[in-house]
Amino acid sequence: MTDEQRRRFLTRALAAGGAAALAGCNKLNDSAGFKSLLAGADKPTDAAFHALTPEDALAREFTEADLSPAFKANGSTNPQTPEYLALMASNFADYRLKVGGLVATPLALSLEQLRAMPSRTQITRHDCVEGWSCIGKWKGVPLGKVIDLAGPKPEAKYVVFRCADDYGQNGGRYYESIYLREAYHPQSILAYDMNDAILPVPHGAPLRVRLERKLGYKQAKYIVAVDLVDSLAGIGAGNGGYWEDSGGYIWHGGI
Ligand SMILES: Nc1nc2c(c(=O)[nH]1)N[C@H]1C(S)=C(S)[C@@H](COP(=O)(O)O)O[C@H]1N2
Ligand SMILES: [Mo]
Question: Which residues fall inside 5 Å of ion ligand 2, going by CB?
Fold first, then answer.
């Protein structure tokens, strides 16, 4: 991250901490994770981060009683790309999750197939760097199971999530990425249900990722493809995600 990007990131994050509380959600600035993010923003190396919190540690899980009365939707909430409008028109019957890149067997999985796989349900807190958190219940297929079905090649190092929405005025597709090994964290799931209902459009229908040890912008919505790659160079501007490319956000995004 350049000094300018770092300055913009911290300014945004700190301004957000002072933002008004949202109905049903809480301000983020009292969260320990958020403070550790700010502390780490100066030198966000994975090694430093994982010295504080082991990578395989679980994010806290909550109970039904803790669910936020309303879960804020943020970023894209109603994608208008022709691809997405067509999927929505068929109520996602024609949706296929493509799993490709450095895999033995590229896949195209329907929602029915994804729902037939083993599932995990988790009640967790979503923390957005804009200064709000909400607790929601997510059900989905463990990301590692989907990747294992395709068979990662030995040289695969990253998982890239490709989304159906064009973000903002720039026409750039939203995307995100993580280390391949992070896909096997027990709380890394491809969620198709939220709060005991089918995942609604504002929250990423028909499929979004939940990576419960990471900040909000890593939780890619409207996922149409998962690609295994050995380098992030040449994808977007090469920083591993839409906001990493355009907002100077930290790629690791851990909490
Ligand atoms: N495809 C896509 N995924 C996205 C975004 C987006 O704009 N497009 N916004 C991100 C941000 S910044 C946040 S905080 C969360 C918001 O998820 P929610 O709408 O379920 O609250 O989605 C993340 N994933
Ligand atoms: Mo966010």
Answer: 128, 216-217
pLDDT-based confidence at residue 44 (cuts at 50, 70, 90): low
pTM over 0.70: yes
Instruction: Quote the pLDDT of residue 168.
Output: 64
> Separation of 157 CA from ligand 2 center, angstroms?
25
SS3 60: coil
Write down all domains in the chain, each with its CATH number in brackets.
57-246 (3.90.420.10)
Residue 171 to residues 129, 167, 218, 226, Cα–Cα distance (Å): 23, 6, 19, 20
Q: What count of other Cβ atoms lies within 10 Å of the Cβ of residue 69?
A: 9
Atom of ligand 1 nearest to the CA of 164: 1
Are the CB atoms for 126 and 253 separated by under 8 Å? no
For residue 101, give the H/E element and its range: strand 97-101
Determine the residue type at 13: A
Six-digit token string for 211:
């990576």
The pLDDT of residue 55: 84
The identity of residue 4, as a single letter, is E
Q: How far is the CA of 46 from the centre of ligand 1 (A)?
A: 23
